[in-house]
Structures are given as structure tokens and as C-alpha cells.
């Protein structure tokens, strides 16, 4: 049974009417995929743009959410693709296990994490999520699932990791988790007065497991790139206050708030964001302290529906990565463009990334990644187009899980392995079986 | 007080799964009863909560409730009957076998299993039987009266069972979920203010269970809607397309 629903990604731009199916079991999903000539899987809809939308058929797989097995010897979790990361953390953190790589929200599914080959604040040392995936079962619509791993169906594995759901449905996956002693993070905060200082700090602190910088992207001139670096390590038992040591894995219940209405446009006008940025920069105390894991990894998850802050028109997130050699010049050029345009971006994040992963369409690249978001206005879309040009000129690329704007030409130029991706699908004969608004726009 | 173990009759359904998770999260040992293989659901429960769960084969239409309860090897503290079949009204009206299956699933089978359950639970402290009935049983409507009449039977059965056991310590609760977004209703146009998620239904049932409620409308608005529908004189009602 199908329902036509207006769907969008987290950015609420674009919105597309899609016939949606909600299979309740892997068998139901298998029957659907075998029968539909063209479909795309959708998890929790947290990719920002149009990756989880297909106006021919969209499969909502949130009901395929069973955790199947956990091996404490190797730390390997086996679960269905629709399992939410938040549920996984709720189940496993009390036993001392944490996902090896986590994006900035825990409201994503494991299937979505694999399809986007998500990265976290530890990419420079731990790689992306798919580096921890032992195997996955992919339903390509032939009535059975294919086991894909580093030793089995290897090319399909490499195409699926970061493949934006275009190879089929990730029914099941097994991945290694990380042992942690506590539910706290030892956080070190360092202020960087400008971009050069921030990048120098990233290079000096690469032995920290987690590192991320928040940038005030409205700062100009000599303060361009003014940022706050947040470094982190999972706190050890010995680092906890004595009174916390008896319950080291306890997580305080977080007060979750909702955004009740779509904000009006002026809420994010330049003066207001400028004020916010200035006070945020000043409010971050330098030095080391222990913080709870949730606010450290998922600051925005405490504010449900935060995408409504950008108003009814939605927003676009722009995240690109530039190779190490061009990062210093390129990130500066991007920030100058943003700062000159005056488009307010609350959330600007800079991160050092480690080497490229095996995923054919995986985003990460050794260098620096910058993430910004803007309300989806004509002026912002024009700005994004200019940012795309700067990214391309510096040999970088845009994250498909966040993109809603890139052109097919830019995609072809910045993802040079796209022909290999198509070759894998041609070989198994499922080239047109899975598509999305994103894949059509980018002619993947 | 919630008495363990909790037996979920119809654990494969979306509401059944949500209920199993909610009870397990409360520390209950859960027995999943349903058709087909439930091992994955069982593993999921144990991984999510670190608690205990088991599975048992169950078909509400198999006609052998006493044997089923004997095979359990334990006496449930709580039984939640979730199994139900909406069927297709036009098909049920045209085809005797289809109508019989809807009636058997929603009423005769369900009532026989709960009777057998009530017999084995006799004397169990804090024992509770929870039956998922439907607002469709509040008044027969042209669009779903075969399903509706079977649910009306179940509602009357639960009310009688509650009355009969008021002094024995067995509590009986009737649940009328209203519209729920599940596989059963996939593809239907459901009014959002009257539609609950399976997780909402499960939470409401747990809260009502703890408070010993007799009849639960998951969304309070349904009580009002059904009161109005029940108040329409039959001479007018029969001409409405409902």
C-alpha cells in the first residue's frame, strides 16, 4: 500500500511529492524492491537535500529496526538497516560501547550512515563509519540479499559505502563498536583568533581523538576564521569525580525542547547572528573539563525540529572538503565569500579530515572540511553556486548527503570515480533500479 | 504494579512490537507469541534492554488455546491480546471464508484465548488481561461492519470478563486505539489529529495498565468522536456514508 507524501530532507528544501511504502519486515521490503522498477530507500530523512526522495517510489525503512546480535569479544553489532543510532546508543552505552564514528546527530539510521559513509569529529584518526563496517546485506531487487564486505562482492561493497542508496537497500549490517569506560568526554577548548591559527591548532592537536572547530563566519579582515576549537577524548574511569565512579556510564536525562513554530525570516538576519556569534565565542571557556557525551556529540539534538529555525522556506547546508595542499587558501576564499555576502550562517564548522576511504562515492578527502548553512533564499542559492565554484577551483568536493544544489558537471569533475560506480551497477545489471532526486540531478 | 512475564499475543504486528519494547524497557520478561519466525524480534528485545525474552508459536484462529497455555511452561502475569485482522469490507461481504476469518481473528479466536488465559492466571497476583479492541466496535458502519461487529463482540466480552473478575483480582482492560499508523493501515488516508503511532499506543497502554484503567481511548478525542457517532439516531445514521 502506498501513500503519496510531500517529502523533503532535513533542510526542508526541496520538497517533492513521493509515493511512500512502509515495509514492516525485510521480507516485505524484498517483495517491494523486486516489484518496483525504480525506488530509493529512506531512513530517518536526515540527509539535508534530495538524497532520500524518489518521485517514482520511496521506501521508508524505519520499521526494519531490529538489533540482531552483539559479540562482546570483537565488539561487533549486527542489526537491521533501519535501526536508529539513538536507540543503539541507548542500548549499548550502558554496557560500555559507543559507535566508532558518529555524525552530529543521533537521529540517523545505520543504513543512512552507511549510504552516506558518515564521518565524525574523529575522521582524522578513525576514518569514516564504513571503515568499521564488517559486512552488509544488500537487497538489489533480485529477490535475495547479497552479502558485501572487504572479501565478498567487494566492488559492490565499495559502491554501497557512501553510495547514497543507489546500489540497493541495506537490509542488515555488522560493524565494530568502540569500548568506552564512561559516558563522559574530556573536552579541551581553545580559542583561535583567525583561520591560520585554527588550522595550525588542528595540525598540532592531531593526537586528540575528536577535534572540531566552530567558526564565526561573519568575522572579517584580520579576524577572518575566528574560531573555537573543541577537542575531546572519552573520559577514563580514573578521570571521573570519585562520586561518579560508581555509575560511570550513567547519562543524565536531557531536557529536550521543540521549536514550536517556523521562525520568521528576520530571526536570522545579519545583526542577530552577529550578536549570537560574538557572545558564543566569548562564552566558551578555554581549558579542560569533563562534559556529558550528549551535549558534546549532539548539541542540536536537544532542540527537536531545529530546522524550523530557518523558517518555512527551508535551508541549504553547504559542506565541502578541500585537499590539504589547497585548504589554507581555499577555506579563506570560501569564508571571504560568505563574509562578504553577509548571509548569516549560525552553524559554521571546520574540521581536519584524514585520508580518503574505500567508498567509491565517499565524501572524505585528506584536508579540511567546512560546513555552513543558509536559509534557502535566492541570494543564498546564488552564494552556494559561487562557493561551488571556489570549491571546484581548489580541487575539493561537496558532501552528497547535504547537497541540494550542485550541478551534474561539478559532480562529474569533483567525484572522478563516478564512472567506476556506474560500472559496478552495470555489471550487476541494476543501474536504473535505484534512483533519487539527487541522482537524477547529478546524473549519477 | 505490572505482573511478569508479559505475554504478547500477536507480537508481529507494529503495536505488538512497540508493546514488547515498552514492557521490556520496564524490566518485564516478555513472551512473544505470533505467526512465523520471531527470533529476530526476540534478539532485538534482549539487546535493547539486557532483559529476558522468549518466543512461542501462536495463531489466534488455531482453536487450541488450552494446549497453547500448557505449552508455555509458565503462567503469564499479564496477557496483551494484539492480534487482529482488518480485512477488506467488500471482500468480506462477498466471500464467506473471508468474513469468517475476520470474525474468528477478532472475536471468537480472541475471546477463546483470553478465556483460556483467564483460567490459567487464576490466583496470580496483579494479573492483568489487556485486549486491543477498536473504536470500530462502538457502532456498526457500512464501511467496516464485519470487522466492527467482531470488535464489538470483543469489547462486550472484555467488559463482561472484567465484571466477572472484579472480585478475583484479575484486572481486565479494554483498549481502543483509534487510527494507528501501522502496516494494517498503510496507504489509508488517516486524519493526523486522530492518528497515533504504535509507540504512542504502547506508552498509553503501559500508563493505563499501571493505573488499573478499565477502558482506554489512546487519543482522548476518539471518546468524543464516538460519543457523537453513537448519539446519531438510527433513522439518520443509516443514510450517512460512514
TrEMBL record, chain B:
Superkingdom: Bacteria
Pfam families per record: adh_short
Coiled-coil annotated spans: none
PROSITE patterns: ADH_SHORT
Transmembrane regions listed in the UniProt entry: none
Keywords (A to Z) from UniProt: Oxidoreductase
Family annotation (InterPro entries): NAD(P)-bd_dom_sf, Sc_DH/Rdtase_CS, SDR_fam
Family listed: Belongs to the short-chain dehydrogenases/reductases (SDR) family.
Protein's recorded name: Short-chain dehydrogenase
Organismal lineage: Bacteria, Pseudomonadati, Pseudomonadota, Alphaproteobacteria, Sphingomonadales
